[in-house]
Design brief:
Layout (H helix, E strand, L loop, with lengths): L8 E6 L22 E7 L3 E3 L2 E3 L8 E4 L5 E5 L2 E7 L3 E5 L1
Antiparallel strand pairs: 1-2, 1-7, 2-5, 3-4, 5-8, 6-7
């Protein structure tokens, strides 16, 4: 199944959180922070959103930093994705 976001929406897949600290301590599941880096899976077409023209600046494959609790999480074919607005993405990681 394929996800095709509408308007200024972006579909992302979270990058796995670190399981060990820099000093080598293995973290328990509850001690891990929610990851903020994700990979862009699909990008909507942009266009008019709330009366304003939105140009999509992201592309498939970009690594991005996002707001910690932004978007809506969905599970499709056993894979977890997050759908959010382009404005919820803080930066592209290069």
């Amino acid at each position: 199944m394929k996800i095709r976001p509408l308007a200024d929406r972006v579909v992302i897949k979270m990058v796995a959180a670190e399981e060990t600290t820099k000093s080598g301590i293995i973290l328990a599941g509850s001690a891990k922070e929610k990851p903020q880096i994700a990979e862009v899976i699909e990008v909507g077409p942009g266009g008019m959103v709330d009366g304003k023209e939105v140009k999509m600046e992201l592309k498939r494959g970009d690594k991005v930093l996002m707001n910690k609790y932004a978007g809506t999480e969905v599970k499709i074919d056993g894979v977890e994705y997050t759908i959010l607005r382009q404005s919820d993405i803080l930066a592209v990681v290069e």
